[in-house]
Amino acid sequence: MKITEIYDPLISNISKKTILIITLAVLLLNAATADQRDENIDVFLVLDKSLSMVEEIDSVKEYVVDELIEKTLIPGDFFLVIQFYGTAELLLAEEVGRDNRESLTEEMRSILADGRFTDIGNALDTLQNTLKRYDERDRRRYMLLITDGIQEAPPESQYYSPDGSFNHQFLENSKIIQKQGWKIHILGIGSGSAARELAETLSGTYTEVETGTAEGEAPSETEVKHLTEQLTESTEDLLSIVSISGRPRIGAFSEEGKSSLVLSLKSSGYKNEQTIRISTLYLGIDGREYSGARNVRLTVQPESEEEYEIPLSVDAAAGLSSTEVEIRADFAGGTVFTPAIFTADVAAPGFMTRYWPYLTAALLVLILIALLVLLISKGVFSGGRKLELEIDWDDSDKKKFISLPAKEQLFISEGISGIDVGLHKTGEVLATLHSEGDELIISTDKDDLFLGGALRGNVLGKPMKIKDRYGKYKGLTFVRRK
């Protein structure tokens, strides 16, 4: 008998067992990869379905189904999809379960690229307003915006601009998102997308992929598959994030306006070292922004939490007496940290602590002088004074307090965050108010938005209900503070 005849059955047996073991190992590895996260997250997909996406939409849908629904999301995650063109629509908002992935897939595959215009600002408004219907849970949030074009809002949109640029209203409303600490990724398809500009505006990351399909031609099955693979590769770090941990702090400023910012950054999900490049750090002082640092580079190790110190230099004339300062980071592309707009505590000047016993009398005198100057500047001694207001919202226990100077206006306006009241416009103006003595007088040309018709004359103590863009009424009452 040949030796091979003796060992062939044994080798065959071993091969079968080996193949079976390897197969089981691969299946277990895949299962572990899908479920390696034990903390639930919220994922928001904002998807461009304008006509220009017709060649790419099949690849995008396959990418979302294969990578997000099947591989990324785990039971308990919240998945929300906004589809947009000239208008924006909520496609789905569901918690992922073990038995609803098929229905999520069907919803995604129903999307057609058939709309005119590309109003990204309106899509973000719709996302913000939709989220108000759901409880905000203490967990990470990720937004993926996919588009092949630039901002091209219809003329009737508040975000319309003739040249397709992001107008002032868009830039102001984007700051609301920058404060919320979401990981934002812009996926641009084709060379004509505004992915980079959008990422800079929203303080997010971005990638761009080329389609390889000639304009106006239907993509082949191979081209669809290739683009789907590109989309997958370009978002491999979608859930990777660098976030601020704890409360940032700033040391006491010197007389020359010099200090340093100390913040702790936590890296999660990245496999490699990341470099965060900050073009400018802005400090908000007394309603104005001052440059505090430029061209900052921070090296962040994977799966780490480290403290960083950034030297600051601010115009000494800015007035650095605040105990906290709002800081906005403008990034220079690549990896970013969240939130991009945050508040830092400011230490009291050192000499105040050391010499406080000797300066008490002098400080009291200065305070009295400053108070006198303030009262004179506010017109207290010239007949002008402020009307102190308390705003009570029907749907919230929180109260808002505003001091309305005699010659200034108060605005009721509607922006990304809904209807609000303030000394500055946050969106479309619904009504204006001004003080006349002890009365608060309202003016509006939008009577149809007020339940029962707009109020006239003095509105102090009179409840009013105002309809928002979604047809819901928001109730509020102005009360004079004693």
For the largest sheet, list the strands in their spatial order: 10-9-12-13-7-8-11
Computed CA radius of gyration, to the nearest angstrom: 28 Å
Strand composition percent? 25-35%
CATH topology of the largest domain: Rossmann fold
Counting structural domains, the number is 4
Supply the key terms.
482 residues, alpha+beta, Rossmann fold, Immunoglobulin-like, 4 domains, seven-stranded mixed sheet, six-stranded mixed sheet, 22 strands, globular
Overview of the molecule:
With 482 residues, the protein is α+β, with helices and mostly antiparallel strands. The protein has four domains: 37-239, von Willebrand factor, type A domain (Rossmann fold); 242-346, Immunoglobulins (Immunoglobulin-like), CATH 2.60.40.10; 352-381; 387-480, Sandwich (Tumour Suppressor Smad4). Helix content is 27%, strand content 34%. The protein is built from eight helices and 22 strands. The chain has helices spanning 3-34, 57-72, 101-109, 120-131, 168-178, 195-202, 221-234, 350-377; strands at 42-48, 78-84, 88-95, 141-147, 183-189, 205-209, 241-250, 258-268, 274-285, 288-300, 305-313, 324-331, 341-346, 387-393, 399-404, 410-415, 418-422, 428-436, 439-443, 457-458, 464-467, 473-480. The strands form four sheets. The protein has a seven-stranded mixed beta sheet with strand order 10-9-12-13-7-8-11, with no helix packed on it. Strands 3-2-1-4-5-6 form a six-stranded mixed beta sheet, with helices on both faces. Strands 17-16-18-19-20 form a five-stranded antiparallel beta sheet, with no helix packed on it. β7 and β8 form a beta hairpin. α2 runs antiparallel to α3. The longest helix is centred in the N-terminal third of the chain and has 32 residues, at 3-34. It starts with a helix and ends with a strand. 29% of the residues are buried. InterPro entries: VWF_A, vWFA_dom_sf. The chain crosses the membrane at residues 355-376.
